[in-house]
Amino acid sequence: MGNRVQEHKRKSLREWIIYIFGFYKNPPYIEDRLKEADVRSSIYLTVTVIGMEIWMLIRYVKKYVITGKCATVGVFLKYTYGYWILLGSAILLLIYSSLYMLGKLKVLKRFSRPIIFIYFCIGIYFGINTSLVDFSKGKMIICFLSMSMYMTFIFVVRPYISLILTLIAGYGFIYIIDRYAYDKAGNKVSLESGDLINYTTFFITLTVLYITIYYQRYSDAQKAYQLQLAALRDDTTGAPNIIGMEQISDEYTEKLKSEGKTPIYIAFDIKNFKTYNDRYDYDNGDKLLKEMAGIVTRNFPGEPYARHSADKFIVLTSKEGSPEKADKVREDLMKAHSKEKYLDVSAGSYIPVKEEDGPRRAMDYAQYAIYLRKHKEGFFISEFDEKCKKTYETRNYVLNNLDTAIREGYIKAFYQPVIDSSSGKVCGCEALARWIDPERGMISPGQFIPVLEESRQIHKLDKCIYEDVLRRLREAMDANLPVLPVSLNFSRLDFELMDAVEELEEKIEKYNIPKDYVHVEITESALTESEEILHKAVEEFHKRGYVVWLDDFGSGYSSMNVLKDFRFDLLKIDMVFLKGFAGNNNSKSIIKNIIDLANTLNMETLTEGVESEDAVEFLKEAGCKRMQGYYYGKPQPYEELLEKIKDGTYKLLDEIVNK
Hints:
With 659 residues, the protein is an alpha/beta fold. It has 23 helices and 14 strands. A hairpin with a 2-residue loop joins strand 2 (305-309) and strand 3 (312-318). The relative contact order is 0.05. Mean pLDDT is 84; it is low at 1-9.
């Protein structure tokens, strides 16, 4: 309230009077808070009144019924009907107020003021009726004064209304006394001038109290309103956040539909914003976000928009003309930062088509349309369609059910055999995660692994696979079944989100597995992105006695640097070199040279993605030591692998563990 008082001090006398007496319109939130304060006060008052009226009725029973002064029920009710009316109305108001505060009366909330006003009138009537009788007996008008004060606390309205009510109540009662007050002898009874002054003083004081209570409640409501506004805005840009946008989206959607327009949510993503942040520092990054908020506002004036998250913004607009406006957003940002060639804007859109597509879900859909295609070049805006929806639902299912799947054993290791080139026998296998869901069946690794990497939960999956593999190795050893060395995959995030070396070491000790049976696979991309962390990890793996493989060699652009800076025991050649293998002499030359390079560096070689006999023959001639691919078998459950070993489909290398 202090800010508004300061504001009105600078205004004219007329505007000051408008403020003091409450001739202004409050925001709905403040009105709701004031009504809620009335309802809360009515709970306290009605409990008090109920107690008092019950006490008064008990008193009447003792005084008149037990003594026989009230011979019949009718006579008793005649003398006590006012108490019954006040008691009944207080009970009804208490029930209403309690349900209101519990949020059970959404439909009737708008009637809180009329309902409380009715009770206000009943209370004032009771006070007038009782005090008129008391005054006629030469007593004070205490009941009316008390009821006036009680009602002041539950019906706190604008100051000008309070003033009108106290004037009507006070001087109306004085008028009633002057006109209708008679003593037992039938003589007219009037207020003494001294009493009149006292009662006038009382009502002036009551009016001041009324207004004071109102502005105290108004001040509290204003503070809460400012906090709510702050909660609905983004601190960095000053733009609304998604909570603020969500609150007005339904109404704006209906407005567009009533005008015959199609509502559409458009999400914007500043591409390579992190690069800009790293180059110009975070303060300048914040300035860019503010600039983007201004660009969105300028191109979609008067329409709901918000900063969705990080470098992402969203707007609700009409489909008609929206592509041009969206294109202008991109054009304005790129024009303002023409020197930063890497900066760009991607956009996604979604048209809500079902009732259940609320604002929050619609915003997520538009945002997700960008996520699905963010790595593709040559397009600006993508639409969330049915195909996107299926992927989105799968993504949410993965995120919401990962922990359950791990706990219940839905995620298991499948094993793809690794073949010794010279003998054609199995010399090991690679453990690959498979999710067999009771509700959705087999969920493809291509569906859940990228989601877990993006949400930084991939380490949970990998720990689950390590546990499953080592437990099965222990079971096979205890049952005297064939035991194959298994390679375990480690991603970049595994080394960021957990102590990968210690995690493996703990499980090795738990199941008492010889380290010769466990090979560590680290992807090339992990090494190029987290070089310092991975360098220490590779050294530590070697120090602990593990064999370390470089996986997916050739998939990145820094392969030679990786070989220069890291020491590996085996080079796993990426399957990309075997695509279009037949008749491609370049592929053959590259693979042959990689194998020769590995031999020079004292590393063994394994080529994955082997799918044809021609590829097998070439790799043998080129000197590749091991091979893996669909030609030899797909990833399969452990039991199936053992069965194929048993029936002779796979033959094991005599010296299967290289010590």
